[in-house]
Amino acid sequence: MNFELPALNRRDFVKLISLSGTALVIGCVPNGQGNEEIKKINLSKDFDVNQFIVINKEGGIILFNHRPEMGQGTFQSIPMILAEELEVDISSVEIRPSEANRDLYGSQMVVGSRSIQTEYMNLRKMGAAAREVFIEAAANRWQVPKENCRAENGMVVHDDHQASYAELVEDASKLPLSADPILKDHKDFKIIGTSVARRDIPSKTNGSAIFGMDITVPDMLYASIERSAVFLGTVVSFNEDELLKMPGVQHVFKTQRTVYGRERHGVAVLANTYWQALQARKALKIVWDDKGLEKNTTESILNTYKLEARKPGVELFKNGDSNKLLGSKDIISEEYITPYQSHVPMEPMNAIVRVANGEAEFWGSTQNPNGIREHIAQQAGIEDPYKVKINYTYMGGGFGRRSMTDVVEEATDLSIKSGKAVKVIWTREDDMTQGPFRAASFNVLKGKLDSEGNIEALEHKVVAQEIQNQTGDNMEAGGQLMGGINIDYTIPHFTVKGVLQKNYVPISYWRAVYHSTNPFAHESFIDELAHKTGKDPAQYRLDMLPEDNRFTEVLKRVMEEAHWSEKKEGIGKGIAICERSGAYFAMIVEVIKGEKGIKPIKITTAVDVGTCINPDTVKAQTEGSIVMGLTAAIKSGLEIENGRIKQQNFDTYKLLELSETPEIVTVVMKNTLPPDGAGEAGLPTVAPALANAIFDLTGKRLRRLPMDLNEV
Amino acid sequence: MPTFSLNINGKDYSIDAEPEMPLLWAIRDYAGLTGTKFSCGIAQCGACIVHIDGAPVKSCSFPLSAVAGKRITTIEGLSENNDHPVQVAWIEEQVPQCGYCQSGQIMAAVALLDQNPNPSDEEIDMAMTGVLCRCGTYPRIKKAIRKASKLS
Ligand code: FES
Ligand code: FES
Given A249, B18, B91, B122, which is the most exposed site by the fewest CB atoms within 10 A? Predict the structure, then answer.
């Protein structure tokens, strides 16, 4: 098997080390109090480590990283941090994914843009500690004070001497490691903050990068599964005998998967080739018991949400007493609606699992390697989870969808039933119609202005399902529902309320999660209030934010970059701000009215991600977030008809095209705070900034997504 | 099952499969060339684009029976050393994110530039319509195509 980035297991590590002679091995070890310690480790004995580095006698520096790469460029950013403190050239650091192992590496989940955030300090300390022992080893060897030695470019240098890390590694490995090495000053950074080319990119331009979809293992069957279109339907009967006569078909099984506590049923066709499995699946005749769910539609669900919005809801945030003020007259109130969305990563979901002889193996792309190990072990009744081998590859997009284990559950079930390795491949239609989806929401905002037009009271009520509370009787709305609502605005009386919804449509994490819906309502409404008072919407926001706030800085920066105050004939401008995963961003969208309706022509963003490791990666992530945000704002939205998802494929669930992508300008702010997640910055502000721009140009206010730009 | 002889990247393959099976699966599952991707299966996304006699074709919707005697080029056949001008431009502009759509993007761009070495913005827009990228690499794709047009 040719994986681009082979994940090595511990046996291989030990072998690798013994082959390369004495090495300095520094790991990041959990200390049991939720923190981590940097120390020298012995790989054949110390099992409880997160990421670690090996510096061997040949001068090789290998960084074993414990989180998968999903296309967000962390496999470039992470070695940069290490190389900075270690004083080596970035190209001399090799990065390898570790195998999945929760005991060894803790959580390996890649979600919420957190990879860089968590590793930053650990990596710096590892690099600095190693640099210090190299300097000490050299100073000892030359009998000179270590203050007179410095590290540069993989060497320790003194006025009269110099030695490479490779020459010093044996001595260095015998010295004690400082638990608190001195970190470099920001102003001395040579690598952090520069744009370094990503290493995975060449393999992604010639077809050699391997994704889960590309793997085959010997003696494997392909499975295609017809699942209940109304999600919770059950199988009454199916035409197994007929199908078994079709070319290549080996088995037809009932199967199931669990999605947030609910069993979801289907019928799987297992065949020698994927094409045969697909053909046979088309001939399936399943009688379903749809349990009355087929009566649901988008509008029936929305009507329920509208009725539910009359309930008082749970107060998720409260400042002052907006209840009293908003009970009086002169209230401004508006409603905003967002639909369900599908993740549709370009690589459809897939998984290969082989369960045999009390062991199992998985091959595929995942945001959650440990979850998969545990899931397979439990499902296959394998007591020791480490008898489940996890092989993970590049991911053809995750966006939250690949943090789930449901597809692996299907593959495991079918492998147990057939006794073979089974590769389950979802079709695009499966992917689009089965979910779990980004939650739909109904937002009601109420505001009251004082005599100067300032917001005196504001209430934002979110009516939506909650990912972590989809079933059962608990109807208490949780804090998750208020994601993305900006409570930094100084509003004397400000309440956020949640009314929890439960229904049969499955939901899950989707890029930026609730930040992808709430800010549309919130930042549109703030704009509406600004216009009511006749104030400039950007200044209106600035007036509500404390002076030295990170929001203030990105706002001012984006206003300058996009020449906010210059009005141009025929161009509408809209602004919005948001914070997500610790990253602050402000966005200005510019629109014109063309022959075929409104057209966004330029999107300018200022983004503050704290210390920016690799500006080009932050820019790329912001561009990607904007395209996904624009897709959700003007192109795609799922509808429910007869209890099932109406859109089936990209012919009706449209993605933004190259020709529709406006000019994108991203300004990355300079900042010395620890790095924040950059993977979602830009998505939440697209819809509100666009709606605000459309209002600016046309006086028309769009409050439901996706917006139809041809209709304005 | 009938046998089809295919010429992919200058190499001959003989494949036993149903005539209506799409070329995509012959390339991936029979010839073992996995650079060409499956994503929508209905000619809507472009992940599966290959060249047939130099023209871009969505291989997920092109039956095996129609390719006999034709010259097929996949992403793997573009260059020996990843140095086709479009590949070079793609790397310089740091286009790919997850990378899954990129074989199709590159094959579409190569076909465009072969036909029209100096495309206008509108011509680029047109040629790249129906080649989708969920990661949103479009701004860079545009830049890379312009760069490649200068390189070649
Ligand atoms: S897979 Fe062929 S166009 Fe989408
Ligand atoms: S790079 Fe991920 S889909 Fe295009």
Answer: B122
Q: Note the pLDDT tens digit of each residue in A29-48.
A: 776 666 678 888 776 666 56
ipTM of the complex: 0.98
In this prediction, residue A294 carries a pLDDT of 95
Cα-based distances in Å from A38 to A49, A77, A90, A138, A433: 9, 20, 21, 21, 46
Do A199 and A309 fall within a single domain? no
Residue B134 with chain A: CB contacts under 8 Å:
344-346, 397, 399, 628, 655
CATH number at residue A24: 3.30.365.10
pLDDT tens digits, A466-477: 999 999 999 999
Q: Provide the 3-class DSSP secondary structure of residue A141.
A: helix
A515 in the same domain as A644: yes
Q: For residues A480 and A400, state if they share a domain.
A: no
Q: How many angstroms separate the Cα of B85 from the Cα of each of B91, B107, B146, B149?
A: 10, 12, 11, 8
A595 CB contacts (<8 Å, ≥6 apart)?
none
Question: What Cα–Cα distance (Å) separates residue A430 from each residue in A224, A351, A568, A654, B21?
Answer: 10, 14, 46, 16, 20
Phi, psi at B25, each rounded to 5°: -75, -30
Q: Are A186 and A329 contained in the same domain?
A: no
Domain end position, chosen among A155, A172, A205: A205
Residue A5 lies in a domain: no
Please tell me the total count of domains within chain A. Answer: 3
Task: Provide DSSP, A39-69.
Answer: EE--TTT----SSEEEEETT--EEEEE-S--
Specify the pairing of strand A155-157 against strand A150-152: antiparallel
A345 contacts in chain B (CB < 8 Å):
98, 100, 134
pTM: 0.93
Containing H/E element for A25? strand A23-30
Range of the domain at A315: 298-340+437-711
Closest alpha carbon to A77 in A7, A24, A124, A27: A124
Do the strands A23-30 and A36-40 form a parallel or antiparallel pair, or are they unpaired?
antiparallel
Q: Coil, helix or strand for A203?
A: helix
Cβ < 6 A, ligand 2 pocket? A 71, 346, 397; B 96-102, 133-135, 137
**Same domain (yes/no): A635, A702:** yes
Task: Tell me what pLDDT residue A73 has.
Answer: 58
